[in-house]
């Protein structure tokens, strides 16, 4: 196993020495300005606490692992690929962001059923001009750090990308076209007379829906489960992540970090590349 150490800052040599000692690694290799690979490392209970204390991300990875072994990345949108929760920002146009954000947070922690939470949040948007969606996309939506670097690496290796979201097609469709993603699925807001009606069209794409789209796309591409990576941040991503060979919690809620193969708590999305490409 290799122990991959990453940060958003320079990693002091003393920290690497300590981690090499704990893990009994044979040597350390620098793989980027802020990432190192500790070869032939062994798991040690103290590594997690040390890394958390010093804001380091870590992961034990098979020494034979290569990014090219994978064929599909499935990712959540809100607070994973992008830095905002779109519905919270739409609600801000109505002066209702605190109320909607509170429901969003509760749903992401797994305290409220996602479909029910979405219905409650969307209902609060009734009467909002559809131009508010354009404003959110143009003025507030930003990719999370490292997104374009990650996607370029995936495309280089021929890895397909699926964006699957409990959010809205208004945003996923635009991101799919802008970033050259292969597939995208989300919920559709009902709009009548240029206004949001406060309803979602069709069946809500919830946690099970995300898992179903992962499996459908995997089968369509003729891939095995171990060739799929899934990345998310909230409780409604857990069913999807459980269907992948490798799951990554990105700046995620505790319940997601606890169940994921790896957690990226500090670095950007390009941390996926440093982690999985040996």
UniProtKB/TrEMBL annotation:
Organism of derivation: Sideroxyarcus emersonii
Keyword Transport on entry: no
Source organism, top-level taxon: Bacteria
Gene Ontology molecular function, alphabetical: L-phosphoserine phosphatase activity; magnesium ion binding
Keyword ATP-binding annotated: no
Enzyme class: hydrolase
Record domain DUF4072: where: 3-45
GO CC terms of this entry: cytoplasm
GO biological process: L-serine biosynthetic process
Name listed for the protein in its UniProt record: Phosphoserine phosphatase
EC numbers, comma separated: 3.1.3.3
């Amino acid at each position: 196993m290799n122990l991959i150490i990453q940060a958003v800052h320079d990693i002091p040599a003393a920290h690497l020495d300590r981690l090499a000692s704990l893990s009994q690694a044979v040597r350390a290799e620098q793989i980027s300005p802020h990432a190192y690979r500790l070869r032939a490392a062994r798991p040690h209970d103290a590594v997690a606490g040390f890394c958390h204390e010093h804001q380091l991300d870590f992961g034990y990875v098979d020494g034979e692992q290569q990014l090219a072994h994978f064929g599909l990345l499935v990712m959540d949108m809100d607070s994973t690929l992008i830095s905002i929760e779109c519905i919270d920002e739409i609600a801000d146009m109505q002066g209702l962001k605190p109320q909607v954000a509170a429901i969003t947070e509760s749903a992401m922690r797994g305290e409220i059923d996602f479909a029910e939470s979405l219905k409650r949040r969307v209902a609060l948007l009734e009467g909002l001009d559809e131009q508010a969606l354009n404003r959110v996309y143009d003025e507030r939506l930003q990719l999370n750090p490292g997104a374009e670097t990650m996607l370029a690496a995936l495309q280089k290796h021929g890895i397909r990308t699926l964006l699957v979201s409990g959010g809205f097609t208004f945003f996923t469709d635009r991101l799919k076209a802008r970033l050259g993603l292969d597939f995208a699925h989300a919920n559709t807001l009902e709009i009548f007379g240029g206004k949001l009606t406060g309803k979602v069209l069709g069946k809500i794409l919830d946690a099970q829906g995300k898992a179903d789209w992962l499996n459908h796309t995997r089968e369509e591409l003729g891939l095995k489960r171990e060739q799929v990576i899934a990345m998310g941040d909230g409780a409604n991503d857990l069913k999807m992540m459980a269907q992948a060979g490798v799951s990554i919690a990105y700046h995620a809620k505790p319940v997601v970090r606890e169940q994921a193969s790896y957690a990226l708590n500090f670095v950007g999305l390009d941390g996926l590349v440093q982690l999985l490409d040996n």
